[in-house]
Amino acid sequence: MPLLDPLPFDFGEISKAEAEEFVSAVGKVLKLEELGKLYLVNKGADGFALSFDGEWYPFIGMHIGLNPKQDRTPLADGVTLIRKLVELLRRESRARGSRAGGRYFLSLDGVQRVAGSDRVHVVKWNWPLTTDETFKSTQPSKR
User: Fold this and answer.
1) Residue 42's pLDDT is what?
2) What is the pLDDT of residues 43-96, one digit of tens each?
3) CA-CA distance, 72 to 53, in Å (whole number)?
C-alpha cells in the first residue's frame, strides 16, 4: 500500500492576480444571487464554504446539507486558483478512498473539510489579499 502524502498539502504561492480573479468570480455570483459576501476568515474559524459536485465542478450551495442541483450556483469555469485547488482536493479524496466532491471551507491559511465533528486541514496556503481587499471586492450591489 503506498504511503499517503502528509496533510495538509501545500498549495504553493498564490499570486495576488489569482486571488483577485477568484474573489471576482465569487463576488459576481454572490451579487447575482444576493447570497451575501465572501468571507475568508482568520485561522480556526469556519471559513467560506465552497462545494464541488461529483465531477469537481465548483458551486456555492444554499443548504447546510446536500444541495439539490436546482439550488447550486455554479462558479465560472477557468478560475486559476480553483483549477489548482481541485487537483489537490482530488489527490486528497483519492488517498482517503472517498467519493469525489464535497464541501470545503476556505480561510486565510488554507482549506478544511469536515470529518465527523472535526475539521481536517487539507490544503495550506497564505492568502495574499488583506481582509479589506477581499471584502471590498464582494460588497453587495446597492438597489
Assistant:
1) 54
2) 555 678 899 999 999 998 877 777 788 888 888 878 999 999 999 999 999 988
3) 9
> Which range (38-42, 48-52, 70-74, 123-127) has the least confidence?
38-42
- Which among 102, 18, 95 is positioned nearest to 66, based on CA atoms? 102
pTM (2 d.p.):
0.79
Q: Which residues lie below 8 Å from residue 55, measured CB to CB, with a gap of 6+?
A: 100, 101
- CA–CA distances in Å: residue 129 to residues 10, 22, 72, 104, 140: 18, 11, 27, 20, 19
CA distance 19 to 16: 5
